[in-house]
Amino acid sequence: MAIPHTFTFSQSSLGDYQACARRFQLRYLERLAWPAPQSADAAEGERRQRLGQAFHQLVRRHQAGLPAASLTPLAAADPELAGWWAAYLASPFAFPEAGVRRAELTLSTPLAGYRLEAQYDLLAGTPGGEWLIVDWKTERRRPARTWLARRLQTTVCRHVLALAGAALNGGRPIAPERIAMAYWFAAFPLQPERFGYDAAACARDGEALAGLIGAIAAQGDGPWPQTADERACRCCAYRSFCARPVALATYDELEAAGEAEALSSPVLDLEQVEEIAF
């Protein structure tokens, strides 16, 4: 089952392949709907997903120019959301000093015969100056720095900005050394995690991402291999297609494995999402 060259890779699809090639095939090529609940405590998971979406929507509107005072009443309906919102407004990331601020932006670039896209919660910078990627996290646990450093999100977001950020930077590519990425945690607002970048890391990332895309494109026909780590199956909504009787993970376990993010990503209107492709 060949990957069409119109396919656009993302941190999510690449992460699915790394977790399980069969999951990638079922989700992105066969396009099967999720056949099973994603967590054992589905009601709690849905509640936390809605809170995460509501927070992202508030931040998007604020970064688009709506005053905080008009948005604060919208957060008051839930104490946890109100706490996140207050912590956000008190953080330096709510008001970045930058000539360009873009919330919920998508950039894409050619790579290894396909396109690779990155989605940004917030991208702020000044043409010819420094650029900061901010990602808002509403999980109840704070991941370790080493775990975040290995994440495809960290790799893809910085690399795509270096390759596709010229339209935001006065027509000039953004030097990797001018790029930084910060994760801000609503439950741990005073403990953000920041990662720099440089040309050597950018080159390594390009080789690694191209190699990963090449490995996916080289997969043959028939069912693709299942992961050898059956613990990953507990977090997979496609597990009913595989003959592996595993118990469902809780929503906390999904967050710990980084699997809850796709579920809690904000639901956006297409006209509100800006995409720049090169």
Low-confidence region ranges: 263-275
Q: What class would the helix/strand composition place it in?
A: alpha/beta
Order of helices and strands: EHHHHHEEEHHEEHHHE
- Approximate shape: globular
- Rg: 19 Å
Helix content: 25-40%
SS elements, strand count: 7
What would the average pLDDT be, to the nearest integer?
88
Main β sheet profile: 7 strands, mixed
Task: Please report which band the strand proportion falls in: under 5%, 5-15%, 15-25%, 25-35%, 35-45% or over 45%.
Answer: 15-25%
Write the layout of secondary structure elements.
Elements: E1 8-9, H1 11-19, H2 21-29, H3 42-63, H4 68-75, H5 79-89, E2 100-111, E3 114-125, E4 131-137, H6 145-150, H7 152-164, E5 179-185, E6 188-195, H8 199-217, H9 251-257, H10 261-264, E7 274-277
